[in-house]
Amino acid sequence: MTATLPAAASAPQRSGSRPSRPARTRRGRRNALTGWLFALPTALFVLLLFGLPLALVLQMSASDWPLLGGNQGFNLPQNYVDAIDNRFFLDSVWFTLKYTVLTTVILLALSLGLAMLVQESTRWKGLLRTSFLVPSALGLASASLLFYVIYSPIAGPFAGLMKAWGFTFLGTPDGALWSTIFLIVWRYAGFYMLLMLVGLQGIPDDVYEAARIDGASRWQTFRSVTIPLLRPTLALTTVLCVTGSLLAFEQFYILTKGGPDNSTITVVQLIYGIAFQGQNDLGVAGALSVIVLLALVVINIAQIRAFGKKAED
Amino acid sequence: MSTTMPRHSRDPLAGVPPTDSTIALTAPNHRVAKGASGATGRRRPPTTFAGIALRTPYWVLTAGLALLFLYPLIWTAISSVSPLAGTNQTDGWGFGNYVTLANYQAGIWVYLLNSTFVSLLTVLLTLTVSLLGGYAFARFSFPGKDLLFLSTLAILMVPYATLLIPLYVLLNSVGLSNSLVGVALVLTMFQLPFSMFMMRISFESVPRELDEAAMVDGCSAWTVLWKVLVPAVKPGLITVGLFAFLAAWNDFMAPLILINDSNRMTLPLAISNLRGQVQGVVDYGATEAGVVVLALPCILLFLILQRHYVRGFMSGAFKG
User: Fold this and answer.
1) How big is the CA angle at A82 (ends A77 and A84), to the nearest 5 degrees?
2) Sign of the CA dihedral A76, A80, A81, A82?
3) Do residue A39 and residue B136 have CB atoms under 8 angstroms apart?
4) Is residue A190 less than 8 Å (CB to CB) from chain B?
5) Most CB within 10 Å of its CB: which of A29, A227, B24, B197?
6) Which residues of chain A neighbour B319 with C-beta distances below 8 Å?
7) pTM to 2 decimals?
8) Is it true that domain A75-306 has CATH number 1.10.3720.10?
């Protein structure tokens, strides 16, 4: 995907060149040992904090492993059976998928709209861009806490209205879902708008000019020029948004606590719950983690295929 | 996953911070279009997309949208100092909610200090590891280089929770249970894909002639890095540091899983726990004050370093 986006003035330029092999110049080879020394901290971090835990989660998923008891020996098919048999497994998978589809469609459509709205660089549009982006600086936990107060029937700005009209934001399953989606859209719209802007800037003006000369309407231009040429960006944003939504945790943990009536439990919340709240079973939690990891890899590969991306080596 | 990168750019200006203060998105388009020669001058989208035709609805719509995005922040900031319902602040406007917050459990200062420590350590570690690693990836050939780079990017593919549970066990087994250092190490690992990508392309955009000349003069690789290259990749470092800070300051799940001791909690965790502490009654005012304390440094940093924030997107580092 690298050659598809434009570079900022200060950022390194990818000048649209062919994919290049690793530098094999005389000097590029200068000293493998020095190179390894500089790469050593990276290697240690990747090995000890990524490779090792990854191996351990595989081992956990195959072992009887209570939170406080440590490894109690082999328990292979049982952990996976228990994970799938969990009474919230199907509900949480279904809820997570529903949340992911809704969030991705709404968030990407809105952020593309915002990006087209502020595409030009005028002072006013710069100001708009900044306004849309400010929520992205907040953490997901901060944003969730902020909306926890805003949605409150006691202290929120809509408290009076909620009382008069008798509605709540978080009191019903649908209300909780849509309130959370609104929070996520508010928090991430600017982030995805920025990615869309980068993509839009990569579309050469000549194409738009050609469309205009051919007498294409604005809608035709959007459908036949913007969308096809934005494909790499749309693929990237979709993969990012789907991955992020499938792994949703904080927003539900803070805002809805999985409620009402356990209607908003995501898969990651279920993993956390099995590992640390009540069941305290790291083996089953590990098995569920491995299932999520595999599902994520499959879903991402399917998405990249679906977007018809050129194979990336 | 991006593994093919331009070897390096010969543009002597690449890697040098732009001098104007405008947002980086206004920079000229550098993409070399198919069939077109390298685009240089400032380009403007065609007027059909500008919405010039209908002025007034446009202003109303955009101002309304901007307000929609800013309103929750402004409302929270104002109501944190107001005597609204759901708070213990009954004596009119003032900082009563902040006093409540300050006296919460171990005291807000403890959590502020914990958060600051974790954030600064994460920034420091991320900068160090990605500076050295980016240099190695951009300027050296060594066995296992591609494998290591790919493994670093692969961190993005693995769910947070999938790694945090085994990390909890691992850190416990090496005596880093309940440790803020352990949290910083984990957060640094999660920052590596973005940071390594960013630093690698930052180094690759610096002309090789620059460090080769210094090498010929007899400087060691270390001196070249420190004296010649660090100034050239400074914008990349600022971007990496900014993203690392925002991620670490705001992170919720890593401390939630790795920290049990309430005196070692970070700010987001403490403020989340603050709700429902007093006999199940939520102190909304103190929560608002907490959100302000959490959000203010991030918003200020973002506004000051906006150009560097935007660079993180332009670099393509999100394409792992």
Assistant:
1) 100
2) positive
3) yes
4) yes
5) B197
6) 1-2, 5, 236
7) 0.82
8) yes
